[in-house]
Amino acid sequence: MERIRIQETPKGLLTIMNNLYEIERKLAIHGDPGNANRNVERIKEALSGEGLLLFYEDPLGQPFKETRTDLEASISGSSTENLVVADVIKPIIRCGRPELSRVVHKGIVVVEARK
Predict the structure, then answer these.
(1) DSSP state of 32
(2) What sections of 2-115 are H helices per DSSP?
(3) pLDDT tens across 52-91, in order?
């Protein structure tokens, strides 16, 4: 079984991951006429390989409970029942493999009652 080394993730790598997420989101919204998504995928592969094992998770649409430790949330609206992630400011950044990872940077989100 592969062991994940617990160490501090450099701030520069976290900044790259957050910006990569933003680029990917904008490409999804506005289209990709220049095929930039191919470059985004290559960067993600580089960050998840070579011993770095970094990847991000987009929690958009996921249920939210106050017991979640991987998100910092602001509640939009007056209801606090049946909350879901409505907007993602920063994704959850993880280290490891998708089936076994740890959070190295909490996601920052806006949650609201499910409509």
Answers:
(1) -
(2) 11-30, 36-48
(3) 789 999 999 999 999 999 999 999 988 888 999 999 999 9
**Tokens linked to 4:** 């994940």
Q: What is the pLDDT of residue 50?
A: 65
* Lookup: tokens for 18: 């957050």
- Helix 11-30, helix 36-48: angle, nearest 10: 150
Alpha-carbon gap, residue 24 to 3, rounded angstroms: 30
| pLDDT score, position 77 | 87
At 45-62, the pLDDT tens digits run 888 876 778 999 999 999
Tokens of 50: 């070579």
For residue 35, how many other CB atoms are within 10 A of its CB?
A: 9
Q: What's the pLDDT score for residue 1? A: 41
> Helix, strand, or coil here: 87?
strand
Rounded distance, CA 21 to CA 40, Å? 9
